[in-house]
Structures are given as C-alpha cells and as structure tokens.
Write a structure and sequence with these properties.
Chains A, B: Pfam families: Peptidase_M29. 2 copies of one chain form a homodimer. The first copy, chain A, has about 400 residues and is α+β, with helices and mostly antiparallel strands. Chain A contains 13 helices and 20 strands. In chain A, strand 19 (about 395-400) and strand 20 form a beta hairpin. The interface of A and B includes residues 48, 53, 57, 85 and 89 of A.
C-alpha cells in the first residue's frame, strides 16, 4: 500500500465512518497547515458524500508562536471569542466538525510559562461555547491524526526528519487499522468489544473505582446515574459517528466531590503546547490539593487552577495495556494516541453523554470547567476495582488488563 | 537585496504604511496557503506593532476546486454566510483587515461556467455584509500581493516555474517601490500626486466624463456630489491607511443611470477564477445592454446580470499609461496590478467614500449590488474629457496621459 493510498483510506475512514457526513451537511475542519494534503483528500471525500460546504481553518506553528515572541501583554490575553462563537453557531445549526490532530507538541516549551498559562486561560474561556457544542452530542464530530514534521521530531528526536515522519506514520496507520483489508470492519469489531465493556460497567453502577499500582492509590467516586461510553456515538436523528480515531477507551463521569488519594501520571501531558512530565497529584474531597511535576510544573499548576472546576475531575477512562497503541510502546506526545495507550483521568469539564439524557448535572455530581485535560495513570502495574454501593469490591482490571 | 529582505520590507510596508495597525487592534488576514511565508512575517510585524490578535484565514486552490469537481448542486450554491457575518462583526468592532492577493487566476477555467456563475452568485450574496464593512470606511484595510506558483504560471506559461515566480516577484517588488531606499517616502510622493489629481477633479465637479479611443466611445455621468479618492484614506479617528499597495489610480462614483455608448475592455478580467477576454459592453441609460466576450462570455453575462445593480457602474478610475505597472507591459491577470496599469470602470456596488459623509446614496445616483468588478478600458489611444454642467469640455487625459 503506497503512502498516498493510505492517506486516501484515512480520508474515507474519517468521512464515511468517523464523521458519517450527511448529505447537505456543512463540515468544519481545523488542521495544521502541514496537514493540507490530508485535508484536501478529506474535502473531496466530504463533497462526494454530499457535504454542502467544507470550511477549513488552518493553523500554523509560526503564527501561533508569533503571539508569544512578538505580542504585547494584551495579545497574550486575547483570544478570538467571536470566531469560536461563530463556529459554535454553525454547529448548533447542524455543521459537523473535524479536528486533524498533529501539531508540534512542544511548540511553546521555550516560552515564559506565565505567558503560556495566561494565553491558555484566555483561549479556554473564548473556546467554551464551542467546546460545549462539541461535547453536547448535538452534532457529529471526529478527530483523526496527521503526522507533521514537528510532531515526528518530538517523538523521534534522534532520527533524520524524513525517517521520523515515516516511522511515526507506520504506527499511526496501524493504530488506525489501515493495515487491515477492511478498516471499517476492523473498527466495528473494536467497537463491539467497547460496547460490551461499557454495557457491563453501566449495569453494575459502581459507586466508586479504586486505582492502585505504580505509586497511584486513588479512590474515585462516580457520578450518580453515570453512563459508560466508548467507541461509537449516535445523534438524536440516529446518525452514528465515531468521535476519536483511533480509540480504545471506555469512559464515564466521576463525582466532582469524591476523589481521595494520590495519582502518579505515567505519561507526559501536553498542555497547550507545553510538555508536563512527572506529574503527581494528591486529591482530597474531589479536589487536586497538591500538584507537582518534574517538568512544566508551573504550567500544570496554573492550568489546573484556572477555574474552580479545573482542579476537579470530569472523566475517568479505562484502556487495557494490550491496546495496539500501548503495545507500540511509543510515547506519542499526542493525547489522541497516549490516552488510548493507558487508563486516564481528565481534569475539568465532564461530558453530558456520561449521564442519561436530560439528567441534572449538578445533582449527579458533574464537574464544570473551561478545561478538559486527559492525564494518563495507566501502566502494567495498575489494578482497577469497582466498589459497589454496598461496599463490595469487584475486580475490573488487573496488571493493566480487563478481567471482566 | 535578498528575497527574504524584500519580503520583510513588504511586511513592514504593509503593516506600518498600508494598514497602520493600532495598538490593541485585531487584524484579520485572508491569504492563499502558498503565501504562508509572507503571512508569518506580517503576523510578527503586526504583533510588534501592538496587535491584540492576528487571525489568519488560509484558502487553498485544491480545496476551492473540490467544490466544483466533487460537490453536489447544493454545494455549488452554498457559501458560509455565517463566517462572513462573523468577520464583518469583528470589523464593526474595530478589527483591521488584510487581503493577500495572489491566487491562481484561471483556477476555475475548466469548470462548467453555469456552476461557476451560481457559485459566484452565492458567494457574493454571502459576502455582502463583509464587503459593506470593508468599503464603508469603518476600519483600516489593505491588499498586498504575494506571488504564488499558480499566479506566476498564468503570467509566464512558457517559463520554468521557478523562473516564472522569480520574474514576477521582480515586477511586484518594483511596483511596490521596494527597490527604493525608503519605500514609504516613495509612496508618500505617489500619494501626493494622487492627492493633487483627486483635489483638482473633485473641485471641477464634472457632470460627466467622455472616454474615447481604441474602439471605446463612452459618456459616463458622474454622481451628484461625487468626490474623487485615491492613495491614502483616513478613519474617523484620524488613522491614515493605504487600501491598495500598489496603487496608481484616482477614482470616483458614476451616476447609475447615465452611461451611454460602447466600452472595449483592454485587459482580461478575472471573474472569481474565470478569465474573461475580449470583453465589449454597450451601455444605454446606465445599464449594460449588450455583453460580448471572446472568452468567458457566459460567465461575464451571468455575473453582470446577477442582480439589478450588477449591470450598472459603481466606480470609474483614471490611471496614466506612464504608471510603473503599465510600463512593465506585463499582463498580470490580477486586478490589484492590472487596474493600476489602466483607466477602468467597475460594474456593481459603488463606494460611499466617493460621496460626502452622510450623503443620500440613492439621490446622488449611487449603484447598489452584491458585486464590484473592475474592468480595464485604458490604453495608449484613450482620451478622457470632463464635461461640465454648462456643457463645456475640459481635457483630462490625452493618449493615456494626464494633461491636468
């Protein structure tokens, strides 16, 4: 299979399976300028599927950096709320939304952490209406990867850049099941497994989960009436879609007031361009009360206290160590991959899809925030135990693998 | 001077003289993806000048084409009105606006002219709120060129592409006075000359202009209370700016009801990607009553009848044959250059800046339309005569040169 063939297959998988673009539907795409080749193929695919308009918003590393290297304090704290609001409006009117993930992970590593934190906070506040529509289940959305040079250099700093790009694409194509004769059929099998796990866990309705191993000892209350999700989603009109490709996780909503103990994060988190390594967080009463990190500590501390909900949890997700991404044993510096290599918890806003439709978020224990940041706690030492409301303990994962 | 130096000088000219970005002002940039190098330099320059946010909207030939090659009829007639409205809103709130001109002129030449016309009409309607803000004098705006491969190939089809790009850049840098030690001082001299012409012509308050030569014999009534513009403009708060770089024209508003005779257009017009050549238009009562062309006739006929005002005139502009762009004797297939090589008239909407502030457009004879398309009638044979309200005739240009 040539590289071009694989990109075409990725475009077809994205439009036909990931997004399931409907005739007459508009599609909004955000992508790095380096991903233009894939964006062009996806655009043709989407028009072929009947899209009424494909609107692409290209970002560029040098333009992003210029705000920090040449911008005033005013510029650091400014974000285009009007544009996020306009995109949110388009989605409320039915537009689908695609993000191409693959920007340079450490882009802002050399910049002043205080500036980065203030810029991130401004960006999060401005993007809130947009993120609310994305996570509300109103419209079909999808994230797929594209290997940019900036990303590949971060993953393989010691390889020549062309080789780094090629090697990383190899992993990406395999993680996307594009090495299968019929990638959609392969994904249907994955989605069937995820459906079994989420149905089992939803039915059990555990009161809490206990994570233990590799330094982590964390008891996490689950929201009242929580629903486990993972794999495919479905709009009110019956349209199915697959938000993340690749995806290996089942996930639900924690209770914002019940997290106790210590989480040792096993992979770096990329917080809007800054790589945070060696993160350790202690929780009490649902809140992160102590945040330390070997690298990027200031960025993490500021980010996780940027609003009241940013220090509490909005998601918990289970991923086995046998997932193809975990087995590749690559540190991707990209949430779309690293979150599918390991169990994780997310700081910030929780997803309404993890409650029954129309449920009272406040009463259920949902967390509210302008941020949502996945942080990996999974590893080969981790066990996960479900704690029922009667106090009984049920093993869910042992040594990183499902036992249900 | 290296190419990089020239691009940096262009970025400085654009931000410091063309736009005169104010501290705290947002800047919206539209550009072809091929112009990213210049956009990056301009972004750094604008942040350096105190811009609060630089928001870039990149277009891409392949993405534009995909609508025609892969899109449904629905897609042909869809344009993102919500995005134009959002950008118009940002400008009403004070954002400056920069267009980088340099897309591929004949991009849509191979496409079905009916489809192209319907797509153009949908685009014009959707863009109207945006164009209204641009032409209302509410905010500072600027257009500068960037030589893309697609543009250079159109101008020099027989040269190897790298040589075509280099040759065209040479003309562009000279037209922009970047070969002068102090390009801003050079532009100030040009603007002084334009100011003298526009002041003379405004003071004379001619009732009509008579264009004659090279097959053209056209008498064009001027709007009541018309004002000649050209060179620099000034916002209500006193900020000066230079909308077009390069620019060599003085221009004013015709009376929508008074154009009689025949215009033979001396350069091709690029109508949203289709090149129209050999255009001849006969006017009666201000209206184009017969439109013929050697190439692109259907696109021109449809475009110039896309609404009531599209067949009437919104601008008349005078440019001497001795302008550096005319002297380069290159057909640029790009309005920003070709309009500055020759006298021209524009079909469609007229500019309020060509009347006194607050004047009644309707009563003055202003034309209203969703389109505004410059078409060149100038040439070495053309004479222009001013006709005063008492019927007296005053020579303005002879054999393509000013005699005032």
């Amino acid at each position: 299979m040539s590289f071009d063939d694989n990109l075409d297959r990725l475009a077809r998988l994205c439009v036909g399976f990931g997004l399931q673009v409907k005739p007459g539907q508009e599609l909004l795409i955000t992508a790095d300028i380096g991903a233009a080749d894939l964006v062009r193929r996806i655009t043709r695919e989407a028009y072929g599927a009947g899209a009424s308009n494909v609107q692409v918003f290209f970002a560029d590393d040098a333009i992003t950096l210029a705000r920090f290297t040449h911008g005033s304090e005013d510029a650091i704290e400014t974000a285009p709320g009007w544009l996020f609001e306009a995109m949110a409006g388009a989605m409320r009117n039915g537009s689908a939304r695609l993000a191409i993930a693959g920007g340079t992970p450490g882009l802002l590593a050399e910049q002043d952490p205080g500036k980065v934190a203030r810029a991130n906070a401004a960006q999060s506040v401005a993007a809130k209406p947009f993120m609310e529509v994305v996570t509300s289940g109103l419209t079909n959305w999808n994230i797929v990867p594209f290997v940019t040079e900036g990303w590949a250099k971060q993953v393989y700093p010691d390889l020549p850049v062309a080789e780094a790009v090629e090697t990383l694409w190899g992993h990406v194509f395999r993680a996307l099941r594009l090495d299968h004769d019929d990638p959609v059929a392969a994904w249907q099998t994955v989605f069937d497994t995820l459906a079994k796990r989420r149905e089992y866990l939803t039915e059990r309705a555990f009161s809490a989960l206990h994570f233990e191993g590799g330094g982590t000892d964390l008891t996490l209350g689950l929201a009242k009436g929580h629903v486990w999700a993972g794999g495919g989603l479905r709009l009110a009109d019956g349209t199915g879609y697959a938000p993340n490709l690749p995806t290996e996780e089942v996930f639900t909503m924690p209770d914002r007031g019940r997290a106790e103990g210590r989480a040792v994060f096993t992979k770096p988190a990329v917080i809007n361009g800054t790589i945070v390594e060696g993160l350790v967080v202690e929780f009490a009463g649902g809140k992160a009360v102590k945040i330390t990190a070997d690298k990027g500590e200031a960025v993490a501390q500021t980010y996780f206290t940027s609003d009241e909900g940013a220090s509490r949890l909005g998601e918990v997700a289970l991923v086995p160590e046998s997932s193809p991404i975990a087995r590749s044993d690559v540190l991707y510096f990209n949430t779309l991959f690293d979150e599918n290599a390991a169990c994780h918890i997310a700081f910030g806003n929780s997803y309404s899809m993890n409650l029954a439709p129309g449920a009272d978020r406040e009463a259920a224990g949902a967390n509210e925030s302008t941020i949502h940041m996945d942080c990996m706690i999974g590893g080969p030492e981790l066990s996960v135990t479900g704690i029922a409301s009667d106090g009984n303990r049920h093993p869910i994962m042992e040594k990183g693998e499902f036992v249900i």
